[in-house]
Amino acid sequence: MSCGWVPYREFDTVLIVDFGGQYTHLIARRVRELGVYSEIVNYLNFDRSVVEEVRPRVIILSGGPSSVYEENAPRVDPWILDLGIPVLGICYGHQLLASMVGGRVERGVGEYGRTRIRIVGRDPIFDGWSDEEYVWMSHSDYVAWLPEGRAKVLAISLDTGYIAAFRLVDRPVYGVQFHPEVAHTPRGRKLLENLVIKIGGAKPRWRVENLVDAIVQEIRSKVGEREKVLCAVSGGIDSTVTALLVKKAVGDRLVAVFVNHGLLREGEVEEVLSTLRKLGIEPIYIDA
């Protein structure tokens, strides 16, 4: 998936398969807030080689705008169920897992916004949850039926009776119709913590500082001791962060260049120069 230093080779990782959900990056953020590294992969690029490379502790299937019963709906192969690691499907991922084990997904009345659910089957993923909790829903399709003996219902929606959560009876494969990653699901963080750390066994050692140190070391390893590094800066976040990382790596051998192309707002040149100087970067300023 990547070259050079990559965090998943050093830190326990959660792999998130993206089906085009609006909250996919929020899922990744919530996992990292637990101190565990997360990596997103588009479902089209998800295969055995990715799993073998990343060696994830947990796999999460995101939500998405599709319906599982549509022709050419996005899917993953059934071998994901036999990996022996926890899998969680959220919203579309929940429906996809249900269909993969022989369940039935149908169009329903839809649930949108704050919804109350009842826990009907206790499981470690719901440790710390009360018997009834509010969650955030955003779906039209729902899991109408699950095969007895293959899957166990863990929670239902009080208003509709829809299946809000389930798991396979013989392995840690879960589906939740609601979105645990959003703030409107108050116990959502606890559910993700239960899944990733308690069930998945991931060690919470990831910090963003780990990434900064690793990038700085990689820059140093690629730049010769007497070489200089030319870095164009615009004042935006990307180029400023890049310049700061290079500065940390090579010190005064950084040659930063800031070009005024005439399209900046009034006072923006002075603001950019001031910000860079506060960070210890003295750019070459060119008024073009």
UniProtKB/TrEMBL annotation:
Transmembrane segments: none annotated. GO terms for cellular component: cytosol. ATP binds at S234, G235, G236, I237, D238, S239, T240. It catalyses: XMP + L-glutamine + ATP + H2O = GMP + L-glutamate + AMP + diphosphate + 2 H(+). It comes from the Archaea. Keywords: ATP-binding, Glutamine amidotransferase, GMP biosynthesis, Ligase, Nucleotide-binding, Purine biosynthesis. The keyword Kinase does not apply. One of its GO terms (molecular function) is ATP binding. Residues 206-288 form the GMPS ATP-PPase domain. InterPro entries: Class_I_gatase-like, GATASE, GMP_synth_GATase, GMPS_ATP_PPase_dom, NAD/GMP_synthase, Rossmann-like_a/b/a_fold. The keyword Nucleotide-binding applies. Catalyzes the synthesis of GMP from XMP. This is GMP synthetase. It comes from Ignisphaera aggregans.
